[in-house]
Amino acid sequence: MGTSLTTEFWERFSVLLVVALAVTAILTAVFTALFDALTARLRGRPPHRTAPRIPHPRVPADRRTPAHL
Questions:
Q1: Which of 9, 13, 31, 44 is the most exposed, having the fewest neighbouring CB atoms within 10 Å of its CB?
Q2: Which whole-number Å values give the CA distances from 38 to 31, 33, 46, in the listed order?
Q3: Distance CA 37, CA 3 (A)
Q4: pTM, rounded to two decimals
Q5: Rounded Cα–Cα distance for residues 47 and 36 (Å)
Q6: Residue 47 — pLDDT band, cuts 50, 70, 90?
């Protein structure tokens, strides 16, 4: 005695599959961010930020480096 899968089953299955994938992606992103922050805190460092750029001093035009030393 076999049963066939109805269109209602496939509709519910596809909706639940999409919802499960979305929840998994969101929870993965949230827990990854929390784990990164916790790891940085446990190591005693602030989270990674880009360092400010240090400007290089300009060399005047009359003080050039000699080509041959």
A1: 44
A2: 10, 9, 10
A3: 51
A4: 0.52
A5: 8
A6: low
